[in-house]
Amino acid sequence: MLAAERHARILAELDKREAVRVAELATSLAVSEMTIRRDIEQLESQGLARRVHGGAARVVDFAFSEPGFDVKFGHYTDAKSAIAREAVKLVRPGSTLFVTAGTTTFAFAKLLPTVPDLTVATNSIKVAEALGHSVRTILTGGERTPSEALVGPLATASLAQLHVELCFMGVHGLHPRGGYTTPNLLEAETNRAAAEAAARLVVLADSSKYGLLSLAQIAPIERADTLISDSGLSSSARRELDDRIPHVILADTSTTGSHE
């Protein structure tokens, strides 16, 4: 099969669904996974697809619904764990932090009890549970969302009273032009307040979030002081982010199992 034919088949699959996996394409097209990866890279260079860890996705994905925490929890677990391990390296004993809601921030929060003498504020019920009783925890009030975040006027009013060293923020989407986004308008407002309360903003977003555009912008790409993603980011995405964010850290997922 010629490369042009494979490219057409890949794009046809992306017309039917948001993403395709390298292994599936290699089997259906009877070629090696390396060949499929090269095909995806070529399609990306033409602006026809974007490379994500383990496969390819549409150039722009629009995500306006807000899935529940349990739905998101089982996806990209290896990447989230790797990102969490890199994020905890930024935390010094005695620090004051704010941790927003999300499954990646939840993975990060589970590691925080290993760091002594922390004070952690959060608007996430799940993050507070992960911290347990060994970490001094401040939980904002607010309206509960499907992702177990507390948002709205009570949450933003609480944040207006806080000053922390680092804000670790999970996002629903990471888009070069659309910035960091979420499908929940109130969560976007609360996350902006969290960023304003912090001396430094650290965004935690696995590579599947790149190119995803959701309803409400939290902040433009440049607003983050540090972005921690994973090695599944394409080379073009890496260049784009390196040019616009002071510190980009890519967690290595090559030694872990495959993503779900």
TrEMBL record:
It comes from the Bacteria. Residues 3-58 form the HTH deoR-type domain. Keywords: DNA-binding, Transcription, Transcription regulation. It holds the Pfam family DeoRC. InterPro entries: Carb_Metab_HTH_regulators, DeoR-like_C, DeoR_HTH, NagB/RpiA_transferase-like, Tscrpt_reg_HTH_DeoR_CS, WH-like_DNA-bd_sf, WH_DNA-bd_sf. One of its GO terms (molecular function) is DNA binding. PANTHER family: AGA OPERON TRANSCRIPTIONAL REPRESSOR-RELATED, HTH-TYPE TRANSCRIPTIONAL REGULATOR SRLR-RELATED. This is DeoR/GlpR family DNA-binding transcription regulator.
